[in-house]
Amino acid sequence: MSFPKGFLWGGATAANQCEGAYQEGGRGLANGDVLPAGKDRFPVGLGKLKMLTCDANHYYPAHQGIDFYHHYKEDIKLFSEMGFKTFRLSISWSRIFPNGDDQTPNEEGLQFYEDVFKECQRYGIEPLVTITHFDVPMNLVEKYGSWRHRKMIDFYLNYCETIFKRYKDLVKYWLTFNEINMVLHLPFVAAGLTFEEGDHIEQIKYTATHHELVASALATKLAHEIMPECQVGCMLAAGNTYANTPNPKDVWQSMEKDRENYFFIDVQSRGAYPNYALKELERKGINIPFEEGDQDILKQHTVDFIAFSYYSSRLTSADPEVNKMTQGNVFATLRNPYLEASEWGWQIDALGFRITMNSLYDRYQKPLFVVENGLGAVDVVTDQGTVEDDYRIEYLREHIKAMKDAIELDGVQVLGYTPWGCIDLVSASTGEMKKRYGFIYVDLDNDGNGTMKRLKKKSFDWYKEVIASNGEVL
């Protein structure tokens, strides 16, 4: 058997994309709540269009998500029916500390997640919990400028200590930050950062990054003290960057693009800022705000495993004439003529998945956990009330085969696989519902209209068989 016994098959979600109930149960406002659908979403996500509150002129899809808050028992039961061994979800920071800097936590929020984890436990499903998945209380954004302020480390650790102590007997696997490298690409979405005219944007991004890296190391330390048996992972948006040609300049450019993302995990997994990053930041005139003890903290409290998302590979050229960009999950990339693309322009590259897994495992020599992978597509409900999503089955089948090859042929150690959006949810990048990933269809449109009714897609039964056979029947 190529997949190890106990391999953690499951699915992944995030609170800000599925939970809804944004003003219920004592929850405070978070950055995801002020991200509108439509043309303003990307400028707000970049931190360039400042939107710190909600207005009557926009629709905010996170406000109701798919209402997991009220449907979690039904949804977890469906996950159980598929045979999930694990369920990746995130905790909404502002549901626990509505303002982020509160003296005491919100009991109603704490109880909600306790109920969710116990429901998972009931079905033998292991929760995989992201502590912050693109999630910052808006009070911390307004009062402190979010992660640009060192004080955020204290607020984050207070939050971590609270949830670690409360859920120590219910959760074994933790991720400190979702796609930590996304602070460079969508700084408001990833870290609640906004910018004013004249700001040194790169300095602010890397200041926030340093604070998150120190916070991640201290959270790892805290988790191991409170829950000695737990495992803590980092998480990056992964996908190797190919050179457009054998021209060494293109090869060098592809290496630099990969390093831009590896940098974060180099620190979290190896325990120190890599020399290439130190030199690059020095050339850019960016100061890393080291305080006494930071380097020891980073060195002594590295992560136990490397979690990552993979949707596609990327392609780059050193020639500015060639570098005419297309879209791909926020990362700009050239069109690869050897690959097909999804309806949103994301290039489909199953072998690239195996390449990425090998790159990460060779680099870090720590177990991997694939916590996001999937195909966003427009699904149509037939007159018979079914969703024939063979295109999704094909995408996942080829990627699971590539993962199997990485394990069986290359010796890569992998803990589990949780495809993204195992139930349809709001797209983080576009705010759409029609960009669906799930095995379970949710009756909701881009404007938030629909019955919320859950419907099993064709891929539901397919994935159920994959899990039952431990990846042998694809």
Automatic annotation (TrEMBL):
Catalytic center residues: 372
Listed GO MF terms: 6-phospho-beta-glucosidase activity
EC number: 3.2.1.86
Keyword Endoplasmic reticulum: no
Keywords of the record: Glycosidase, Hydrolase
InterPro entries in UniProt: GH (IPR017853), GH_1_N_CS (IPR033132), Glyco_hydro_1 (IPR001360), Glyco_hydro_1_AS (IPR018120)
Protein family according to the UniProt entry: Belongs to the glycosyl hydrolase 1 family.
Protein name: 6-phospho-beta-glucosidase
Gene source species: Turicibacter bilis
Taxonomic lineage from the root: Bacteria, Bacillati, Bacillota, Erysipelotrichia, Erysipelotrichales
